[in-house]
Amino acid sequence: MTKTELVEFMASKAEMSKAAAARALDAFVEGVTKGLVKEGKVSLVGFMTLEKKKRAARTARNPQTGATVKIPARNAVSVKVGSKLKEAVR
To answer: What pLDDT is recorded for position 38?
Structure first.
């Protein structure tokens, strides 16, 4: 499902305009992003939990050249699927 398809679904389900649904979706994405940056975790009970985790620096190998590459430490997002979403997808 693309963003456009999701906006169309939200608009029809909530009986609102596509423009209003697009603004709502953009606000949701912005809220989740700010929650991860500020607090490191966003939990939507039954749906999913997103958590910011620190990944340590490591060395890897380029499979094409065989050269060793250093990968710096970084933050990554971990996703845990909630029970309601898990059951719906089965």
So the answer is: 95
Separation of alpha carbons 18 and 54, rounded Å: 37
How confident is the model at residue 2, as a pLDDT? Answer: 97
Among 50, 48, 29, smallest CA distance to 39 is for 50
Instruction: Identify the band that residue 58 occupies on the pLDDT scale cut at 50, 70 and 90.
Output: very high
Counted residue by residue, the chain has a size of 90
C-alpha R_g of the chain: 18
Question: For residue 75, what are its two tokens?
Answer: 């933050």
Please tell me the CATH code under which domain 41-90 is placed: 4.10.520.10
How many other CB atoms are there within 10 angstroms of residue 21's CB atom? 19
Residue with tokens 């979706």: 25
Residue 74 in tokens: 């970084």
Domain boundaries, the chain: 1-39, 41-90
